[in-house]
Amino acid sequence: MVNPKHVCVIGAGVSGLAAAKAFSTRGHRVTIIERSADLGGVWEPARSYPEVQTQSPKELYRYTDRAMPEAYPEWPTGSQVHAYLADYARIFGLDRMLRFNTSVSGMARRADGRPGWTLTLSDKSGASTAEDFDFVAVCTGQFNEPRELHCPGEDGFLAQGGQILHSSKYNDPQVVKGRRVVVLGGSKSATDIAVNAVKAGAREVTIVMREPVWRIPYFIGGLVNFKRILYIRAQEEMFPGWGIGAMSRLAHRIAAPFVWANWRGLESLLKAQLKLKQCNMVPKERIEDGVNCSVPIATPGFHPMVADGRIKAVFGSFDHYDGDTIVMSGGERVAADVAVLAIGYKLGVPFLPAAYQAKLVDADGQYRLYRLIANPDLPELGFVGFNSSFCTVLCADLAANWLVRYADGQLARQPTAQQMRDNIEMMLHFKRVERPAAGVYGGLCVAPYHYRHFDELMADIGAKEQKRGGLAGHFRPPDADAYARFLASAPDYQAA
């Protein structure tokens, strides 16, 4: 028998809603703590920059139990994603579990000796309360706390009228109209904002990035949706995975020339389609060596704007400010009125006590999470949405369904603490030694191993049907409806 729990879900973004739905469906009482005034996480309107849209097609960026509206375009806008999430919360009653304008300022093991955690919760006024929970699901994800960058001369730049803002605060394009704009970063948000600034009438637009990176257009060659090339099991199998045996390694060595030719062909196609040579933006790294969650989608219009000079590309980083000028690490000087820092977010769980943080994160920043969800030395605690990917919603949904069964002891393959530790060590070795690209973002990136990750979760859950078979199954992108069927084939239960 499974006893009902009072579960705290921290965060009301994509992952928090998935966790709340999974735990409440199994009969647990759920409280969702959200520090802002709205749900949606990165899709909250106050955090979205103009013209933002998903990097993934809508059929990949959805929950297993609810499709996006048919009227949505293939790559929905930020406002459409927010509306989808709000509708999801309303339909499944998650909106009644929400507590907005509340942050977690601390947590500790329960003093009464019962399993669970005592959370210190602070409201908008700063008043704090302590509340006990039987289980905590951390769903703050990887895009929670904006990363900061402070350089010498910053105060002088601001004093003479300059503006410095993180990309999450770039909400009104009027701020750049008629002004000189410098965007720091090489992510899709950086290129999106640079393009938007040109369209908004900026006087000059410069983008500063460390080095050129491979970017994938929505349609490769202008014809083939990238999901049909990079999101298929056949492509994933070109990358040696973790824990493979001697025969698999031999097969990879035999296939190596064909795999090499596949990637060189893709590189040639991208160079021609995006005019990378004309833009002086041909990456030094082979595309297959860097495939992970940091490979951005190419913003439509970005490369043509670089090619014709509407956007100036500078390689390096900010070194210091000098009056109304930003001096780069390579010595180049760029006059600026507005600096947009598209430099991402800080990873971490700041409210977790230091002793437990040491169990969660190694000195080199790698997370110690079994299946990227749970740590055996952090009882009654799990993480949803830390298994990041381009199909983030599906990843969070499957992780949430895994976590509730793990918390209830209902996984078909319920791991022992030692099995979890052994697997964590094996995965850390893989990320540090065998495929260093898998170690980005604290090793919390699923790409390019979506299917391998999903297969493990489905097997653990005990789904009788776990994947689509046959040759066709190797050439189709992940399907949320298919995973809904797989989840439905697992043993059912309710807390009572």
Automatic annotation (TrEMBL):
It holds the Pfam family FMO-like. It is an enzyme of class 1 (oxidoreductase). The keyword Flavoprotein applies. Belongs to the FMO family. Transmembrane segments: none annotated. This is Trimethylamine monooxygenase. The keyword NADP applies. GO terms for molecular function: monooxygenase activity. Keywords: FAD, Flavoprotein, Monooxygenase, NADP, Oxidoreductase. It comes from Bradyrhizobium canariense. Its EC number is 1.14.13.148.
